[in-house]
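User:
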Amino acid sequence: MFVVMSVSGWADTVIYSTIPSPLPPNVPSQPYEAVSSAEFGDLISFGGTADLSTVTVAMSNWAYESEFESLGTSTGFDVPLTLNLYDVGAGESVGSLIATQTVDALIPWRPEPTPLTCAPGSNNDYMASDGNCYAGSLSTVTFDFTGTLVPGDIIYGLAFNTADYGADPTGVDGPYDSLNFGLSLVPPSVGSNPLPDTAYWNTTNAGFYTDDGAAGVGTFRQDTGWSPYSGMIEFDGTSPVPEPKQVIPITLLLAMIGFAAYRRSKGRGLET
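Assistant: Predicted structure:
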């Protein structure tokens, strides 16, 4: 017979995720340049206060190297991506900024077109390892939010600049114009989406909003009609977990208890 003794420690764990494993070749995605976007995100729930470590987003890139011979490297191209975390305001509006991180992300080129193997009309698509043709390829980018304490519900927004849109448009066509935020069609595997039909979006085109811009244009705010789509993102945080357990045979434990009792009795001058 054994007695198990353990203490609590801390470790990283997934607290919200819509990123599948393994990562597919590509998924539906939210463009930025093509739909006049500066920022896109959602309201999500962790189920309790969380101490963040990292946040990972899935990006769908439609740009291939031969289109941009003078840009990037043979591996891919660099683009600054910014992830903003906000409090949830009154009426599920975007509240105050909790934290923001910007990374200079290396986005891999998608494979070159394979027109002879993909269906007519998709001459720019490529054939992936699963035997299907795609216009974009999926990769992930990770942000370090170590030590950022967030409430149970937050609004996040992913922002970056394209040739014509964003906080500081580049004014120059580039592969970032073909970069999209990957979208999930299923509920989160960890955490929850309290408003599954909504997204949070900043577009300068009034007609792209469900309300035709009645609640504002060019501002990061709630939009409806998005079910079943939501941003493909994963939040990791720290939480208490059991440390490796120490197993002690019951005979050894009883011997230890008996020895301690003997020492106490001898200290009092008692005979046993």
